[in-house]
Design goal:
Number of strands: 0
Distance between the termini: 32 Å
Structural class: mainly alpha
Order of helices and strands: HHHHHHHHHHH
Radius of gyration: 18 Å
Number of helices: 11
């Protein structure tokens, strides 16, 4: 899947998934993007990348791809859309591998990844949120997409959640959800459209993006999204 230019192209995604060192490379990309988001910074620094690569046992010789060397890329920072797409795709792989290794802690991992991806989507040129919506596979895809929808509900219901920043985050989330080819995403968009109390700006964005796609009247089911305490940002 080409992922609409936000993630790596289909051939490169397959290459990353089959990479002999996908585990440590995915973990490294996940760590670096997470640190970038936590620090609200455009670049984490060469020394941090070198340290984390050493911790994970990643060597420069093992970090090659057909596009570029991942260690070189992380140390200097992504400069092109394809390079940013590679990192977003690799971090998505890293999340899937981390969840598979620690099911008990997976809920927190997914929430944290979505929070990080929202910041990257709204503050940088890295579209990890959209890549997560497109490239996460199997059962994990439903959990990731559901968490995106829950973040919309958390950030868009009630007058205290209608600041410009809240709206920007929610619009980024619904844009990613609406673009996802996964059937579960369509059901979640339908739920959000019918969600009572949803901020009108966000609701209008959803309705506009839903126009021309599957009618939400065809997607039945109880709305399962309820507000919860806002996570620390």
């Amino acid at each position: 899947m080409a992922n609409d230019g936000t993630g790596a192209d289909g051939a490169l995604v397959r290459e990353l998934r089959d990479h002999p060192h996908r585990g440590p490379l995915g973990a490294l990309a996940l760590d670096v993007l997470g640190r970038q988001a936590e620090g609200r910074t455009q670049f984490v620094g060469r020394e941090h990348v070198k340290k984390r690569a050493a911790d994970l046992g990643v060597t420069r010789e093992e970090a090659g791809t057909s596009l570029t060397n991942v260690l070189d890329l992380l140390e200097r920072g992504a400069e092109t859309e394809r390079e940013r797409g590679l990192l977003a795709s690799l971090a998505t792989i890293g999340l899937a591998d981390a969840v598979a290794k620690d099911e008990a802690g997976s809920g927190g991992m997914i929430q944290r990844a979505i929070r990080h991806a929202v910041w990257l989507e709204t503050a940088t040129d890295t579209s990890w949120l959209t890549t997560l919506a497109h490239e996460t596979e199997n059962r994990l895809a439903e959990r990731v997409l559901s968490e995106m929808a829950q973040h919309v509900s958390d950030g868009s219901v009630g007058p205290s959640r209608r600041t410009p920043k809240d709206r920007a985050r929610s619009v980024a989330l619904v844009t990613a959800l609406s673009s996802s080819p996964h059937p579960h995403a369509k059901a979640l968009v339908s739920e959000l459209i019918s969600h009572a109390g949803l901020d009108e700006v966000v609701a209008s964005s959803l309705r506009a993006m839903d126009a021309g796609r599957t009618s939400h009247a065809e997607l039945r089911g109880e709305t399962a999204l309820e507000g919860r305490a806002a996570p620390a940002r």
